[in-house]
Amino acid sequence: MSENIENVRCLIIGSGPAGFTAAIYASRADLKPVIYQGMQPGGQLTITTDVDNFPGYPKGITGPEMMEEFKQQAERFGTLVRSGVVTRVDFSQRPFIAVADDGKTIFAETVIIATGASAKWMGLESEKKFMGMGVSGCATCDGFFYRGQDVAIVGGGDTAAEEATYLAKLCKKVYLIHRRNELRASKAMQHKVLKTTNIEIFWDSIPEEVLGDSSGVTGLRIRNVKTGESKDLSVMGFFVAIGHKPNTEIFAGQLELDEMNYIKTKPGTTQTSVPGVFASGDVQDHYYRQAVTAAGTGCMAAIEAERFLSS
Ligand code: NDP
């Protein structure tokens, strides 16, 4: 057999908490998993700073360090960790076929998808510059660092509304920036936002530039799209909550996806519409989106893959 063609019992696609937890369990079950790390090895946690809500780290740990530990733990039990991206899959027959950008074609008896979701960003240069230094895509993860301070959040959907009310409990003042004059969020969430006294909404406005220095974010310049007027807000944190995009492009047409393109799983399991293909982490969860819940479903996927192979 050519060295570019491989047979594996369990292929894991994606290397965040879901992928590496699946790898730890699958390797301990002797499935000899191969994991393709994808575009962002370690996943979304590698672009955050401190992680204080993952159990077992009483003093906290940085996102990149934590993911390195996940990786080492998976490797300790024999997981083969590869840098590379799976670019094409064929789930129409078993073994399943996956083609990676390192030139390998993999025939896999089971596949665990853990490709996650990517936060959508405004696309500002300054937003990129202060990423992890005051710019965040997750209030639940990073809100704690801005206790007693002023912050801004952009977006008008349920995520922005929920995160704004969450931040309002921790922060002195929360500026909610929305590009239209009404929120997209559910009525119940809208009421919550509107009656929270330390949330101030800037309607018809968009962030124009994140202001800062070597210490991180110090402010946000916003522009009213109707009047053209700009205004500088003095804030230490800027949260972007304009939606997430599940990384499911290569699975379209192969697996059932929901209306937002997340992979559909059978409730209470990680089973997709194709027996033998499992999905874990944010790629199948737009609700919790936490490292610990992703890790939990990674564990479930590996146990289900093992049972599938032995049935
Ligand atoms: P949504 O797509 O619902 O909302 C995104 C928001 O960001 C919209 O208000 C949109 O504005 C705004 N936006 C998008 N792009 C830009 C941009 N480039 N510049 C400025 N603003 C922008 O995403 P969510 O993450 O809020 O929610 C995703 C799904 O998850 C929804 O179905 C939601 O209901 C659900 N959800 C449910 C929760 C719950 O039930 N507790 C909690 C969180 C999410 P505009 O309105 O003008 O389009």
Tell me briefly what this model is.
The protein is an alpha/beta fold and 311 residues long.
Description:
With 311 residues, the chain is α/β, with parallel strands linked by helices. The chain has two domains: 5-118 and 244-310, FAD/NAD(P)-binding domain (3-Layer(bba) Sandwich), CATH 3.50.50.60; 121-240, FAD/NAD(P)-binding domain. It has helices at 17-28, 63-76, 125-129, 139-142, 158-170, 187-195, 291-310; strands at 5-13, 34-36, 50-51, 61-62, 80-82, 86-90, 96-100, 105-113, 117-119, 135-136, 150-154, 173-177, 199-202, 205-213, 216-224, 230-234, 237-240, 244-246, 277-279. The strands form five sheets. Strands 1, 2, 5, 6, 7, 8 and 19 form a seven-stranded mixed β-sheet that branches. Strands 10-17-11-12-13 form a five-stranded parallel β-sheet. Helix 5 packs parallel to helix 6 (187-195). The chain is elongated. It starts with a strand and ends with a helix. The structure holds NADPH dihydro-nicotinamide-adenine-dinucleotide phosphate. NADPH dihydro-nicotinamide-adenine-dinucleotide phosphate binds at residues 122, 154-160, 162, 179-180, 184, 206, 242-244, 286.
